[in-house]
Amino acid sequence: VPKTYAVGLRDELTIEQKKQYTEIFSKGFWVDREQNEDGFTASPSHLLWIEECTDKKLLDAANYNSGGKSDCFLTIYEGKFHQVKRMFAQQKNEVIYLKRVKMGNLILDSSLKTGQYRQLTENEIELLSGGCE
Q1: What stretches of 19-94 adopt beta strand conformation (E)?
Q2: 71 has which bridge partners?
Q3: Which of 4, 13, 25, 29, by CA, is between 20 and 30 Å from 82?
């Protein structure tokens, strides 16, 4: 299931650097070993810069105030240990804000606080199982 994260980055990026990140992430790349975790090849992922996002529901779910210099949404299709942070670290940048905002077609409930949960609706279950919005 694809997972989309709102990401705030430590370093401000130029338009050209953002294009480079987008291209690198779309092709996949090697991520170095970290402490006890092996290195891995990150599968191609989708990077969308916050200023390019037109999905109001996604923007609302991000509840953005990251404090980052460059903010984006990253969609990954696998789940390695600290994958998002390690992918950006490989590009010499640091994630200072990270929040999962979407799984598959389901935009997560931004009103829930850390540790809270609720029952999914039938529509949400269908979205998670691959149904259309």
Answers
A1: 29-31, 40-42, 46-49, 70-76
A2: 8
A3: 13
